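Appendix C reproduces, verbatim, an entry submitted by the partner laboratory led by Prof. M.T., so that reviewers can inspect both the input and the predicted structure.
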Amino acid sequence: MTVVVVGAAIVADGRLLAAQRAEPPELAGGWEFPGGKVDEGESDEAALVRECQEELGVLVEIGERVGGEWPLGDDYVMRVWLASLVSGVPEAKEHLELRWLSLDELYDVPWLAADLPVVRAVEFMLREG
């Protein structure tokens, strides 16, 4: 059975929010899109809104999907959406740090390998408008 993980490419003022993982140890320090696992009976979009509330303390509006399914190892796939802030200011509740990256700064952090192709896709979408 494939586990679905959702991610939010939160964009505000032309900048993308990146989150630095705190755990597990093998991923700690790497940068990713905020998000998490979809619970049984939950839609992808509802899971993404819930995860952003839990991890960042913000309410987001889900926008356009970024690509299809992005592989995360043998039994996991990631689905990512562009998102915008509706209310709240992102806080690193479960991450080591958060950073807003301009288009020219997107690669200034060491993205996790699984997230890097998504960063490229988000960059293309943002540059194309």
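Strands lie at 3-12, 15-21, 31-32, 35-37, 59-71, 76-87, 95-101. Additional entries are available on request from the coordinating office.
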